[in-house]
Amino acid sequence: MSATIIDGKAIAASLRARVAEAAADLAARGIVPGLAVILVGEDPASRVYVASKKKMTAAAGMRSIDHTLPPDTTQERLLALIAELNRDEGVDGILVQLPLPPQIDAGQVLLAIDPAKDVDGFHPLNAGRLATGEPGLVPCTPLGCVILAKTVAPSLTGLNAVVVGRSNIVGKPVAQLLLAESATVTIAHSRTRDLPGLCRGADLLVAAVGRPEMIRGDWIRPGAVVIDVGINRLAGEGGTSRLVGDVAFAEAVEVAGAITPVPGGVGPMTIACLLANTVRAARARRGLPEVIFEPA
Ligand code: NDP
Fold first, then answer.
1. What distance in angstroms lies between residue 127's CA and the mean position of ligand 1's atoms?
2. Ligand 1 pocket test: which of 169, 214, 229, 243 has the largest number of ligand atoms within 8 Å of its C-beta?
């Protein structure tokens, strides 16, 4: 058996197209949603990611506002910039690119962002809203995971979902979203006993670990849906490198019913969901009704 490959690139492109339509609708009312991205330091991966966000924000018909700060930026300077962006009526979304340099307390920075402009969904108020089932801004990568799963399993109700990883940015929010879809959710982590056995019970397996190809083919229940969030760069021969996920794809594809590839699976969904969140924030701040971008 060979699994259906979930084409994250194509699904993300169609989501971005729907976001662009919603942005055009706002533009017709004189509103151009603005997304401010703050990058502190010179982390190469962050730079690439921020450049890509900028390009896609513009392509969706929205305004991209970039702030690149030096690596020795103080916490006070960063908090002052966030306060300025919180007050700026032309800014609908604020994103601080992580990781931040060691002199800055990331928790304090996330707390300083106006929850109404928190398009990353990391503010504790939005995390609490997600946990209590209140409407709010939802973290982008977890939202992307659920959208991808629903393209092959439109109803997640009653499915046994196992999420491997319990970070605040992926594991926990993805588990909350799956719970909201009425899946029966188990969250696994580094202290979980018999992880392979637990994974074998999953109809839906989400891997968000950060360990290359840790989840093997024989950990997967035949026919399961596998969403691989991991992005791991492995060194190849002659100075080359390649990206792999947290799932051993070549093995898993023979067992799973459907699986996301790396690259080209969850990755492209993150920016698409960020753009969707920016339009959502722009509408909510002006009291306009919510638009639904994702499959119901
Ligand atoms: P973290 O390092 O914050 O969390 C990793 C989680 O995996 C932790 O909960 C940890 O458990 C768990 N874990 C580590 N080792 C094991 C193990 N041997 N067995 C079981 N669980 C284990 O990572 P993130 O959540 O930030 O990211 C996870 C992956 O997703 C990374 O590869 C990252 O690059 C990728 N990612 C991709 C994104 C995208 O596609 N756009 C966005 C964000 C992340 P414990 O809590 O016990 O330590």
1. 18
2. 229
**Is the CB of residue 231 below 6 angstroms from any atom belonging to ligand 1?**
yes
DSSP 8-state symbol, 257? S
CA distance 62 to 20: 8
* pLDDT tens string 178-220: 999 999 999 999 999 999 999 999 999 999 999 999 999 999 9
- Cβ atoms of residues 148 and 269 within 8 Å: yes
pLDDT per residue as tens digits for the range 117-150:
999 999 999 999 999 999 999 999 999 999 999 9
Angle CA 49–55–58, to nearest 5: 135
d(CA 177, CA 136): 12
Report the alpha-carbon distance of residue 206 to residue 209 in Å, rounded.
Answer: 9
- The domains located in the chain, with CATH, are 31-115 (3.40.50.10860), 140-268 (3.40.50.720)
Task: Pick the atom of ligand 1 nearest to 189's CA.
Answer: 21
Ligand 1 center–CA 91 separation, angstroms: 31
Task: Give the CB-side neighbour count of residue 145, counting CA atoms within 13 A.
Answer: 30
Distance of CA 82 to the CA centre of its chain: 22
Catalytic residues: 53, 97, 120
